[in-house]
TrEMBL record:
Gene3D superfamilies: Diaminopimelate Epimerase, Chain A, domain 1. InterPro entries: Pro_racemase_fam (IPR008794). One of its GO terms (molecular function) is catalytic activity. It comes from the Archaea. It comes from Haloplanus ruber. This is Proline racemase family protein. SUPFAM superfamilies: Diaminopimelate epimerase-like. Belongs to the proline racemase family.
């Protein structure tokens, strides 16, 4: 998404309140206060996200990037939902931009808000996201929220394309799958080396090259909404005995430390479509740091000629801190990255 920020719209002084969580190792900095949500126009959380991006992209840069964040920081903004049936609205941001849906972030938001007493731990909490409404079921103990199960948006296999391999002269098959975001899914067996032995930097470079190559070849249009889209995430996966494993690369080279909620759904949908996972089967997905989500396909549907799955994922988040972030009027640095292509 291209965002034009009017620099003179950035106030000299500002204060923001966040609660920070990690879900299976991946951070979510949740903005609770500091942006007047009545200025976020639009008749959906997606439109409110776009309104935020047009007016407050500097807030994303301030909170996600250095010196308050870092290149792999991830965040969420809690807003009023538009959907009458939803309990809250949430959209997602990172050091580079915005994603339509995020599983680890939704688990973080629901866990934190319930533990802070800002959301009642009803059996089902309906969360409106830019990709649609997802249902969250927090599992509570005396100590707080132990885990959250999300019933995610419908997922489908979009297309299979072949691109040049980023690391050899061979060609590389890529499955493009929608699960709230469009993914490029690649079997690590088709690349040089395994996830364990290949340096993370190389996997990140390949992930970005693969995403670029797929976006060059495909004009993606979501068949369920008619919206034009881009592949935003690459997932390089390998199979294991008791869990499948993957590395998930997005943004300007961010690596998800969690097994990626939407990525777990994309992988399950691909396995279902190729007959390797059945409705109801338990699926275990492991991240690049060894943390896990459990998943399941609970339903399949046919909509407008598209075969879709309804996946669920379960994971745990913990609060890591509560912050009051300041923008001091003497501070000329409002959020920078050493590696971001736009500075
Ligand atoms: O959990 O869906 C997810 C996600 C997307 C990007 C980072 N995490």
């Amino acid at each position: 998404m291209n965002v034009d920020v009017e620099l003179d719209a950035v106030p000299a002084e500002a204060t923001f309140t966040t609660v920070d969580t990690h879900t299976a190792g991946e951070p979510t900095r949740i903005l609770l206060d500091g942006v007047d949500s009545s200025t976020l126009a639009g008749d959906s959380v997606r439109a409110r996200r776009d309104s935020f991006a047009a007016q407050y992209d500097w807030v994303r840069e301030l909170l996600m990037r250095e010196p308050r964040g870092h290149d792999d920081m991830f965040g969420a903004v809690v807003v009023d939902p538009h959907d009458d049936d939803a309990d809250l609205g949430v959209f997602f941001l990172d050091a580079d931009g915005y994603l339509d849906m995020c599983g680890h972030g939704t688990i973080g938001v629901v866990s934190a808000l319930v533990e802070l007493g800002e959301l009642s731990a009803d059996p089902t909490v309906r969360v409106e996201t830019p990709a649609g409404v997802v249902e969250a079921r927090p599992r509570c103990t005396d100590e707080g929220v132990d885990a959250v199960t999300l019933r995610m948006v419908e997922s489908f296999v979009y297309e299979r394309v072949t691109i040049p391999s980023p690391c050899s002269d061979a060609s590389l098959p890529v499955d493009v799958v929608y699960a709230g975001n469009f993914f490029a899914l690649v079997d690590a067996a088709h690349l040089d080396g395994s996830l364990e032995t290949t340096p993370t930097d190389a996997l990140v470079e390949w992930g970005l090259d693969i995403r670029d190559a797929v976006n060059e070849r495909l004009d993606v249009v979501n068949p369920l909404t008619g919206d034009a889209a881009r592949v935003s995430i690459t997932e390089i996966y390998e199979s294991g005995d008791d869990a499948d494993r993957s590395i998930v690369v997005f943004g300007d080279g961010q690596v998800d430390r969690s097994p990626c909620g939407t990525g777990t759904c994309a992988k399950m949908t691909l396995l279902y479509e190729t007959g390797r996972l059945s409705v109801g089967d338990q699926y275990v997905h492991e991240s690049i740091i060894g943390t896990r989500f459990q998943g399941r396909i609970v339903e399949t549907r046919e909509r407008d000629g598209v075969e879709t799955t309804v996946p669920t994922i379960t994971g745990s988040a913990r609060i890591t801190g509560r912050h009051t972030f300041l923008k001091d009027p003497r501070d000329g640095l409002s959020g920078f990255s050493l590696s971001a292509s736009d500075g």
